[in-house]
Fold this sequence. Notes:
By secondary structure, this protein is mainly β.
Amino acid sequence: MSNWLDAVKWDDNGLVPAIAQDWKTGRILMMAWMNREALQLTVQENRAIYYSRSRQKLWRKGEESGHVQQLHEVRLDCDADVIVLQVEQIGGIACHTGRESCFYQVWQDGDWVSVDPVLKDPKDIY
């Protein structure tokens, strides 16, 4: 049997986009990047682990904030170049802004409008 990680089409930097989705509601929580090690560890540890391009290292979601993403399922799209993680967002906050989702801005009347409340002040998280 071939290595399941070989089925993923990694980009030139060895990364693949990963979308975290609430496993119960289907809401998109965030998008981040994963390298081969991050995806393998995500499955092994049963929690979302990403690769931080800015810090050039693995990033265990919730390592600072406590807002861990517990893994329920991993899906690979038809082109094998995007991962979807079905997760349980511990604490209900995925975004560093203190919101449930990073996708809290809606295009309305020619501008972006924030429509989701801040659940916790980021200063109290980090």
